[in-house]
Structure prediction request, 851 residues.
Amino acid sequence: MARSLGRLGLLVPATLACAFATDVALRLLPQDWVTFRAWEAVLAPESDAPFLPNQHYHNARTYGNLAAIANLPASREYHPVTFTTDALGYANPPELARRGDARAIVFGSSFAAGSEEGDGLTLAAQLATASGRPVYNAASGARGAAEILSLARRVVIPGGLVIFEYPEGRELPPITPLPLPHPTSRCRAVLAPRGLDHACTALAWLQRRVRISPLAIVCQRAVKWLEDGRWFPNPYAQNVLRERLANGQEMLFLPSERDEFHTGAPREPAVQVFRWLRAKLWAEHFTLLVVLVPTKYAVYAPLLRTPDAGPDQSTRYLADVARRLGAAGIPTVNLLPSYRAAARRALAEDRYIYLRDDTHWNAAGVGVAARELWRAWQALQGAGAPSTP
Amino acid sequence: MLFNSLPFLYGFLPLTYLVFWRLHGRQARYVWLTATGYVFYAFWNYRFCALMATSTLVSYLAGLGLRTWDDRRRRRLCVIVAVTIDLSLLGFFKYASFAADTATRLADLFHLPLYLVAPKIVLPVGISFYTFHTISYIVDSYRRTVVPTRNFFEFSCYVSLFSQLVAGPIVRFRQIEQDLEEIDRHDPRASWSLGWSFFVLGMIKKVLIADTIAVLINPLFADFTTLSTAGAWLALLGYAYQIYFDFSGYSDMAVGLGHLFGLRIPQNFNSPYRALDIADFWRRWHISLSTCLRDYLYIPLGGNRGSRLMTYRNLMITMLLGGLWHGANWTFVLWGAYHGALLSAYRLGGRAWDRLPAGVRRAGTFALVLIGWVFFRATSFTMAVGLFGRMFAWHPGALPPGSYLLPVMVGLAAVVAHVGANSFELRHEWRPALAAGLALLFALSLVALYGGPRMPFLYFQF
Prediction:
């Protein structure tokens, strides 16, 4: 009896210990094999920059975040992506930061970061192609004004252009007056004077290992494989809106985008923050250009098989923000009108300007934005420097 | 922190266990278990630790008073003051919003100019359970059923023992007193395997059975207005097994954890769906609560010592308050009233019922309990009425997609609940193949824990 009791008393703690050991061991290995897209693979929220520095990620079968969060394998649109980050942890060719001769720099959200499109197709890359000038991609994530200025000084020539991509629906542009307390910044502030700044890199590495459990990701996939709406209900399906476009194809949206389309977003804070940022940049001879990016739902609402007849607050909101920014002397590009037109033209040929299984624009959509920005850039040069704020 | 969570399994439990057995002497182990209980509790909301500490201190002081004084007036005062404070805390945190809301609705009904703003109060997890622990201690001390302890940490260890802290079982001091007194004399090897056996069975019940059924039935209840009649009954059956495996799984885990620390926590579920009548059901379901209600409410009210009418009254009061204990919602009160009525009816016509074949009585009792679960699961009267409408008026239709495994899971759960031996009936002597099978199921539970959102135990809300 004692022996048989002993077996369970041994097997269960051993199982627990094995699971723990496997979890720890997998955290120490490279983690690319459990990622489905560049964003997860190279994102580094614990670091000063948005991404891990000097990364070269390639995935032949990446797919969109909406298909992932809604657990809809049938809606995935597989495509290859290659995503490279420079020594500073931004999505650029490695030599660009070293040269420090960029004519423009792009700050903003994951849209501008362009991890869905990959190398050569990000907003900065396509703007560089359109303009024939080097453009530095400094997206994404929240940035302190000090960081924005410091990075602009480092990689952009004096008098260059600072482009701020502002996606609709954000309550405030992700800019703060104070330096953001990134863990590695705080660490360096303490340890660098003692010559121990390598410890901060190790700390960031460790934090990433603590945060990401490949075993949990594998188990989540196993559970999601069961909960796909056939054997078990798919509780994740409610995370997205599944709509049919006028051409009969399915497109996924974030439910919050439809809400914003109907209710609108706050207006004042965005304008105030940009006015303040512009003054800061102007003091250092940089020119601010704001680009307003509509949500995917705002672009496609009129192009659904049953067009959304609800109140279109997006048009009103973006036009209002653009008008107020213009009145404050801040050059602004509102992408909504050109995007709706481009989306309509593309749809007639069964093409799209946003990824159907993702919240973000695709390479074609980025191209439209890049052309609009280049036009605005040329206009700024033609008009001379904007007046002092 | 949940028993079915990785921080608990990988961090809290091993650390608590290893340090506990490294410590020598009763006092050190009391202090350690008290401290770990507070850490365990603080994972939900550290601010409420002060509430538990207050309740512990008040009850401990009352116990000291009851130990010291013999005259009736002082002893009564000890009980009244301490129980009033404990119940006031429970009443404020659990029932203040409910009372204000109910008063306003009543005033509105009678067109009275009264509007009470229901305060937004966060319910401290486990308050119903540890309040019952402290009250049972005070009352038992008053009745001289237990000798109140002088040792503050022995008492605080009893109240804050992490294995029973947030969802019971409601262990009375006298049930665990001996083990606490001998806490420094236990052999860690003696109940190691027994503890893991209970714990693993509880984990499998909770994670693999209850949570799987929950995944299948939650969408059905969320959209109950579209359910077919068969779907509504199947969803309710699913809920009956979910709540049983969820709570009895938790209780088994608590018992197993108790054994790992040399503490014997009593049985809380004794195959309740095998009950022959409704009184039998309450002797088998949440035994620690039903015996508390019996000893501290029903019997003091007069029990069945008075007239038949008084007995019915006492039964109704006990079950109404028992329902209300489960949650500040009229659906729980209705559930209590339903069971009070069933118990009264059984007392009235029990002899006729008892003459029926055992199989019929089992099936009938289960059907009555099943119908009662509608009140328990419904979040409002409207939902309860709607569910009854779907169950008892014919609505054709199939199960929605993604629910096809529900009949299989319900069937499997039914076999275990109605036919299988319960955890206390098992000898916990596992042959190697069975032990390996259990370990495999435990590993599957870990996969589910890694892979899905943590599902809290249903009784945490009470």
Q: What stands out?
A: The interface with chain B takes residues 1, 4-9, 11-16, 19-20, 23, 213, 215-216, 218-224, 227, 229-235 of chain A (CB under 8 Å). Chain A is about 45% helix and 15% strand.
